[in-house]
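Extended Data, panel c. Modelled sequence:
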Amino acid sequence: MPNIHRGEIAAVIGGRTRTLVLTLGALAELEAAFGAHDLVALAERFGSGRLSARDLVRIIAAGLRGAGEAVGDDEVAAMTVEGGAAGYVRIAADLIAATFDGAPVEGAR
């Protein structure tokens, strides 16, 4: 069961309910992937509401790895979620909001 106070969320991905969390290591991974020089820059990028499909894969994969799943980005890219593209956006937005203290992600909903 996910603990929102630790920034965890639950989502059905690939037909299974999974826990996702952006740990400090997962955030560092995303900083490197997005070329963000710090957490503020990363939060600003997420808050822009302009995320590509590749961005969604990276965020969701980092969240799964943060929760202890050994998955690669390509494996996550092949997984399905209910609601299609909107479902992926919802998962990423919920994860980002949980990570950054419940602050809403502008434009992601």
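The longest helix spans residues 84-99. This feature is highlighted in the accompanying rendering.
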